[in-house]
Amino acid sequence: MGFFVMIRDVSMGFMLLCISALWVLPIQGAGRESFSRNSSSSSLPSSVNVGALFTYDSFIGRAAKLAFVAAIEDINADQSILRGTKLNIVFQDTNCSGFVGTMGALQLMENKVVAAIGPQSSGIGHIISHVANELHVPFLSFAATDPTLSSLQYPYFLRTTQNDYFQMNAITDFVSYFRWREVVAIFVDDEYGRNGISVLGDALAKKRAKISYKAAFPPGADNSSISDLLASVNLMESRIFVVHVNPDSGLNIFSVAKSLGMMGSGYVWITTDWLLTALDSMEPLDPRALDLLQGVVAFRHYTPESDNKRQFKGRWKNLRFKESLKSDDGFNSYALYAYDSVWLVARALDVFFSQGNTVTFSNDPSLRNTNDSGIKLSKLHIFNEGERFLQVILEMNYTGLTGQIEFNSEKNRINPAYDILNIKSTGPLRVGYWSNHTGFSVAPPETLYSKPSNTSAKDQRLNEIIWPGEVIKPPRGWVFPENGKPLKIGVPNRVSYKNYASKDKNPLGVKGFCIDIFEAAIQLLPYPVPRTYILYGDGKKNPSYDNLISEVAANIFDVAVGDVTIITNRTKFVDFTQPFIESGLVVVAPVKGAKSSPWSFLKPFTIEMWAVTGALFLFVGAVIWILEHRFNEEFRGPPRRQIITVFWFSFSTMFFSHRENTVSTLGS
């Protein structure tokens, strides 16, 4: 005779961490360690319990609860899946406490669960993953996006939503799209916030950008703490702010930012998916919130449109009325992932049982000596077929409300994609999409998957964005900070060619053609640029320009000014200006003025050269005379005539117009 195991609510308030989890519980016979069997089938249990562990009073929790209820109803009404096996669901509120959630998870594990769905908190995900590893229970989360949960340390953890690794790469591409180089990260100081921002830093480094400042605040921080944090952030150089916090408290940041004048022209605010989760959950949208958020760019998990998705959203009001929830409990994307998570477990169980597998448990040897403890850890059992069931889940491939449900070799959902939305006074407006297949596009990602992958910069497209202060032109993204340091400019201290750049006793400390060009460019800027020139090299030998470039790349110098040659290898590490000096070898010679003269044709040769040339012509004439005068009548006659003939022949040879014809073989 089967019985239901109900876990009563526990409320402890000394840890603040919103979590949720969903547990699949087999109905077991009293005193036995096996499923109660359906009378019509010896291979299927008569029922399976699904336990839901999450925070009721949260944006994600309120949406997830309705999705769980809808999924259970749909699965039990579908006779094609789990034929004859009924799913029941047991809810437990964690009251936004990590400790209470962990204790509740252990109590549910005592009932020999075969799968766990949740939590919505990445922090609790790290804790319960160790329990899942020990008991071989597949662990599925519809809301924990911390990238480190995908590590090899947690082989039984599986994420049914998107990994924040992809979201941080999407934000990096957005920063690169507008050619910004530095951002300020504002985040909640827990596993979700820290690990997400760490991945963002790595992704920015690959694009030759960086996080210039990390502004962390504790979970549950009050407005005073947030105000102090934003005031310090406002002193920084960068005006690109990436906000990665929890949806239930994140709007306070913008309320404080508005009061500090940080939502005006020149600022850029980029948020992860938490903001759209909060806004989507508001029905109707609060005009005061939209006024705070005008110009903000927000990312959201992309789920393709489908008939099933539209039908599910159409049922939302009825589900909300049925559960007697508040009228402003809206629909957000995590409801879709929660719904698909329940269906994924149900479909995997159906395949698991159809392959002839059974569910058995055994005692954990490492827990056998804990019976003297008040916490009955000995009641926790190892799921013997857990590894096989996990493999079945990983091999699932079907289309759900969130799109194609299929996992790659790293246990991440395939085809990650995000909406990019611009918050306006009328509400969020989509300006494009991002996917790891094509980067930014204005066409839905699923329409591009059939084409070759293309993430080249020239093919990236986004619609027009209205920035804070109702500005259309993309902000510059930085200002000179009030407490900022001057630019450190490296100047090669050369021994040779000092006209380009060299040490000097003037106020700048350096001089040269390159310095003059740089100073002229500085004067064209509409704002002052504090700067300090620092000589690089000892002045006894020419410094290594490759080492100078390396120090610029390592941020030892902010800029290098000098006769630095642009070569391919150097462009991989630093950016160069347009060249203002042509490279190559040249010959420099003085130019003297010369007057025009009829005798200018004589200038190419010296007098001696002309004398030698004339002598050679006379020599040729004499040789021709010797060869011709015995046979040729034109070279005979009186001596005076023969001498004239020799000179004339020599002169006419210069122009190939001599009148005498040669007849001898040697003369010709």
Automatic annotation (TrEMBL):
Signal peptide: 1-29
Entry annotated with the keyword Transport: yes
GO molecular function term, any single one: ligand-gated monoatomic ion channel activity
Tagged with keyword Ubl conjugation: no
Superkingdom classification of source: Eukaryota
Membrane-crossing segments per the record: 609-627
Domain Ionotropic glutamate receptor C-terminal: residue ranges: 488-651
Membrane topology label: Multi-pass membrane protein
The protein's name: Glutamate receptor 3.5
Species in which this protein is naturally found: Arabidopsis thaliana (Mouse-ear cress)
